[in-house]
Design the sequence.
């Protein structure tokens, strides 16, 4: 790819999750030229790692597939995976962008036949399952990956394992000589759809995520519930592989906490309510979900979802921020200590598994962004000083999938306006 | 080699012939081995401890600590003020920070300090001796001086409260701090994992609410036994005294058979550095730390 | 009712929260509490409290002045700082508990005969005399607070420990006669009196 394909009429969308895909498509379908740059080897972002969406409990394949179809059919969008923004300079309508493209070691000849993966023995943590299991070091990111193209993990490049992958490929797609590339582009506007990451649960020390095997995060729980996940959809706890039947959900794990994330992450209450229904789905009346909460924030129109879950006899609610978790040495069960603020009873309750409803931290936290970008006190992107760059989706605010898509459409419209103004000014000159 | 210099605020319990007399002796050895010089602040006073809140209000307590900060600043300008007692450290550091943040509080404080012929303008950094060890001396140098690894003794590292909260040692977790275990291992012994590492011993409520405090102490000692510890090691004078001395009382009241020595980290270091039992202050144990004495005597 | 208490009631009328904000250490932070309960669950003596910190904060906002100030809950604080380290709103809960207890005590309406209150007073009087704690005198005051007979009983029960501490050179019987003390004990006494005077003035204990 050369610089000539982009002009100051082009929109750069950073991040290929549900928001970035949406922002890119909205602009492209208005006839704008769009470059969609994604850091990982595949589009889809964290949405593709969910088991189901709330409130309709459908699978993410649904929304993602429609978007992928639109992308495949639209020549105005150019997708660049394994690509990060290294620098941005200039101003509204006239930005110079430096992109860094990491080597995939697999070219476009790849047919995703899987022979390289079979040939390789080395394994790496499986990012698509939040590291709960491992995958071969030559791998397809996940079933819905776009592009459907394998990736060779850099750890085996230059080793006999890498050579095995190359030898196994019948179509000459494995190219171990690929190097990192740098590309300079001109663009008129930038949409930052850089998304979020789960707050590092190790930092929430009273809950012992770093010490107790049977304390996991809500994202890991999505993977346990998913039939394509590491346990084939069985709720097997990591400590000993036993089926977890009595499951605790701890809300505000890292959110609304001056020691961690200041903001309410907004999705976690609904995510937990949804996950109690995974327990019901997997175990029927035998499952038991207990939600420990400060207050349930089933944002706006989802109150009915909350009310339905409240009627479910397998789900109970304890109004309390859990003070700490200990572990029963005998059976590996986490023991939750705290006070139920409705009645002020102290409890020390044992569960098979604890799911921490971890908060949303902007993925750009700790990343050096262009000086022009404006962040709020939680590092969500508010916009830019020169007015030509916008935040979209969960990069802009803690949002669920539905609202991330709305936010992306709005950001896309703003970017289109920048391009139109630029075009009009140039025409006048 | 020149010694690192610090203004030293020992505190009431770390004086000759009082409750942590033995602690102070072992601190002397550690300082000597690690080229640290602690310059005792002349005429320092009690910090008021936590329990002082009942009778002394906020300002009288702040003024007590401010007097120490002022003396430190006058006598040893430019030196950090170091405490070996967590309560002394907490009170001093909290006072230093509050006076730094509030000019009206500083003015009130100076109005009172004037009565004792002193004034304080800020600037003294109140630190814990363990911070000096870890941050200024460093693990490598501490490790180098070990000549008698403590071998097969199993210790339960008991950090307790005020060394750990609200300030704690930089980079350590409030719930599961690692440095004490690391010190045990540095001395060549084994740190057993157990679940009462940061449990409160009851503090000063050991005097006023003995049953409630003794329940805390029982939990700590019991867990140490359950996890195979032979001794408890702690950085805190009140933790040491409470957990050691009340074992007899708990045995009497509850029929337990506790007999677990409770020593200070500096006593471990002294023995590991080749010091005698007397230098390590092991003669100051009410429950004798026989295994440590034996190693020291070799 | 003491004069100080009457004055405070008159001055703050129906706003106990304002009274706490003005007169209690870190009282301005009370309103930040979001009632999550983590302090209550973190307190080592939590089961001994009638009112957990979070409950006290709610009671303050509800204007339950007597119930709060006459509660013995604050006196159960061991100063372990668990609540401070875990509070998601960074309320300095330990300080507020100390402040509430001290304020109630100074108003003269804290529960009479509360054991920790007694020990706290004993400790302070001990240190304020010479600038340093005399551990032997503190122990004697403590164990003989209910008279000679009960004191002898306590000492008898703890004789092994007392003897152990003496033998270990950690309890010096001579401290009754020649104790560790500050040289400038007069200056310290004057300084503390001044500090109290300033604080009394600020909090309206003196007119």
Sequence:
């Amino acid at each position: 790819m050369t610089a000539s394909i982009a002009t100051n009429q082009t929109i750069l969308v950073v991040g290929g999750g549900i928001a970035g895909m949406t922002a890119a498509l909205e602009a492209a379908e208005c006839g704008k030229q769009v470059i969609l740059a994604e850091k990982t080897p595949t589009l889809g972002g964290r949405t593709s790692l969910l088991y189901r969406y709330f409130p309709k409990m459908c699978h993410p394949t649904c929304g993602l597939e429609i978007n992928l179809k639109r992308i495949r059919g639209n020549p105005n969008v150019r997708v660049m995976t394994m690509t990060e923004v290294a620098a941005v300079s200039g101003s509204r309508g006239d930005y110079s962008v430096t992109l860094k493209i990491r080597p995939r070691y697999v070219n476009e000849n790849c047919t995703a036949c899987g022979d390289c993966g079979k040939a390789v023995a080395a394994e790496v943590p499986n990012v698509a399952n939040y590291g709960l299991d491992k995958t071969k070091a030559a791998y397809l990111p996940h079933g819905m990956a776009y592009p459907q193209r394998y990736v060779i993990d850099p750890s085996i490049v230059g080793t006999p394992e890498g050579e095995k992958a190359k030898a196994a490929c019948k179509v000459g797609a494995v190219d171990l000589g690929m190097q990192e590339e740098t590309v300079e582009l001109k663009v008129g506007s930038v949409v930052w759809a850089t998304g979020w990451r789960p707050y590092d649960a190790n930092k929430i020390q009273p809950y012992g995520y770093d010490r107790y095997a049977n304390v996991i995060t809500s994202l890991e729980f999505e993977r346990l519930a998913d039939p394509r996940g590491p346990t084939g959809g069985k709720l097997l706890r990591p400590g000993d592989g036993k089926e977890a039947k009595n499951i605790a959900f701890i809300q505000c794990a890292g959110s609304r906490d001056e020691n961690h994330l200041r903001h309410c992450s907004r999705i976690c209450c609904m995510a937990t309510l949804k996950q109690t229904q995974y327990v019901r789905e997997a175990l029927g009346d035998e499952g038991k979900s207990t939600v420990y909460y400060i207050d349930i924030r089933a944002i706006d129109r989802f109150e009915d979802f909350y009310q339905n879950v409240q009627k479910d006899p397998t789900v109970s609610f304890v109004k309390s921020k859990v003070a700490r978790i200990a572990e029963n040495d005998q059976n590996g069960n986490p023991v939750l200590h705290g006070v139920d603020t409705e009645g002020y009873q102290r409890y020390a309750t044992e569960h098979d598994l604890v799911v921490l409803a971890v908060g949303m931290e902007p993925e750009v936290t700790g990343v050096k962004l262009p000086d022009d970008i404006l962040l709020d006190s939680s590092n969500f992107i508010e916009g830019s000083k020169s007015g030509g760059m916008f935040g979209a989706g969960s990069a802009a605010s803690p949002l669920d999938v539905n609202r991330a898509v709305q936010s992306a459409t709005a950001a896309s419209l703003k970017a289109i306006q920048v391009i139109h103004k630029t075009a009009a000014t140039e025409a006048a000159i | 080699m020149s010694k690192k210099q610090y203004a030293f605020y020992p505190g009431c319990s770390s004086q000759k012939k009082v409750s942590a007399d033995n602690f102070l002796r072992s601190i002397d050895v550690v300082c000597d081995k690690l080229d640290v010089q602690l310059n005792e602040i002349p005429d320092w006073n009690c910090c008021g401890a936590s329990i002082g809140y009942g009778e002394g209000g906020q300002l009288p307590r702040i003024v007590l600590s401010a007097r120490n900060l002022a003396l430190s600043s006058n006598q040893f300008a430019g030196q950090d003020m170091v405490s070996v007692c967590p309560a002394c450290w907490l009170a001093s550091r909290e006072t230093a920070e509050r006076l730094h943040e509030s000019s009206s509080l500083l003015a009130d404080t100076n109005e009172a300090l004037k009565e004792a012929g002193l004034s304080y303008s800020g600037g003294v950094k109140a630190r814990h001796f363990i911070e000096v060890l870890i941050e200024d001396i460093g693990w490598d140098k501490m490790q180098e001086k070990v000549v008698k690894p403590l071998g097969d003794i199993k210790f339960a590292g008991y950090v307790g409260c005020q060394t750990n909260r609200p300030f704690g040692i930089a980079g350590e977790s409030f719930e599961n701090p690692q440095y004490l275990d690391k010190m045990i291992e540095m001395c060549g012994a084994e740190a057993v994992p157990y679940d009462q590492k940061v449990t409160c011993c009851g503090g000063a409520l050991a005097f006023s609410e003995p049953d409630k405090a003794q329940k805390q102490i029982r939990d700590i000692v019991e867990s140490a036994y359950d996890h195979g510890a032979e001794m408890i090691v702690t950085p805190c004078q009140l933790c040491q005294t409470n957990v050691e001395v009340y074992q007899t009382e708990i045995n009497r009241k509850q029929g337990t058979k506790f007999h677990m020595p409770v020593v200070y980290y500096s006593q471990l270091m002294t023995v590991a550095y080749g010091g005698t039992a007397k230098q390590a202050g092991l003669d100051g144990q009410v429950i004798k730390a026989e295994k440590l004495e034996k190693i020291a005597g070799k | 009712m003491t004069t100080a208490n009457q004055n405070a009631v008159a001055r703050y009328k129906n706003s106990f929260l304002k009274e706490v904000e003005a007169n209690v250490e870190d009282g301005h932070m009370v309103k930040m509490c979001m009632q999550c309960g983590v302090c209550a669950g973190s307190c080592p003596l939590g089961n001994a409290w009638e009112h957990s910190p979070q409950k006290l904060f709610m009671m303050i906002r509800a204007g339950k002045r007597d119930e709060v100030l006459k509660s013995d809950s604050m006196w159960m604080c061991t100063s372990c700082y668990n609540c401070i380290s875990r509070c998601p709103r960074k309320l300095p809960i330990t300080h507020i508990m100390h402040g509430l207890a001290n304020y109630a005590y100074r108003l003269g309406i804290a529960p009479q005969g509360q054991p920790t209150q007694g020990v706290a007073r004993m400790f302070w009087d001990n240190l304020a005399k010479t600038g340093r704690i005399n551990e032997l005198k503190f122990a004697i005051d403590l164990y003989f607070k209910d008279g000679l007979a009960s004191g002898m009983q306590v000492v008898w029960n703890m004789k092994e420990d007392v003897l152990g501490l003496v033998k270990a050179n950690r309890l010096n019987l001579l401290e009754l006669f020649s104790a560790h003390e500050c040289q400038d004990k007069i200056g310290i006494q004057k300084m503390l009196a001044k500090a109290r005077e300033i604080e009394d003035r600020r909090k309206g204990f003196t007119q």
About this structure: Chain A has three domains: 3-102+180-195+363-428, 115-168, 199-360. Chain A touches chain C through 21 residues (CB under 8 Å). Chain A has a mean pLDDT of 95. The first helix of chain A runs from residue 18 to 28.
